[in-house]
Amino acid sequence: xxxxxxxxxxxxxxxxxxxxxxxxxxxxxxxxxxxxxxxxxxxxxxxxxxxxxxxxxxxxxxxxxxxxxxxxxxxxxxxxxxxxxxxxxxxxxxxxxxxxxxxxxxxxxxxxxxxxxxxxxxxxxxxxxxxxxxxxxxxxxxxxxxxxxxxxxxxxx
Length: 157
Hints:
Belongs to the universal ribosomal protein uL14 family. The chain has helices spanning 2-9, 147-152, and strands spanning 44-47, 53-61, 72-80, 91-98, 103-104, 110-111, 117-121, 136-137, 155-156. By secondary structure, the chain is mainly beta. It has one domain: CATH 2.40.150.20.
């Protein structure tokens, strides 16, 4: 009661005065725990080649789960241009060239991108469907069998 009267006397209205030593406590945010941002099932990825596909969804893995930079995955095309080489609902292979998750390289450097992106490949992963790759790709593609994608890219980081 005394604190409310003192606060009213200071011109603070009906709010209680807080001492400088008492921090303002906020309730914890009700959010889900943070998941790993690597490529899981049902993850949507942007397509950065000239096949006509805009967005794809991961439906299977060729090697490990979850997929990381340089891994091959199987995807279904979710949105595409009407005059492209692939159309909506096509199932094709892809290689992950950018991912949001932070990845530590053997030399100690950490790499991550602002988006999850891939390049579409033929079903048997023998080569890319497109002929041009826009934007940078990760250096981890050199270690795999995707040297053609590295050669088409404008920049390798």
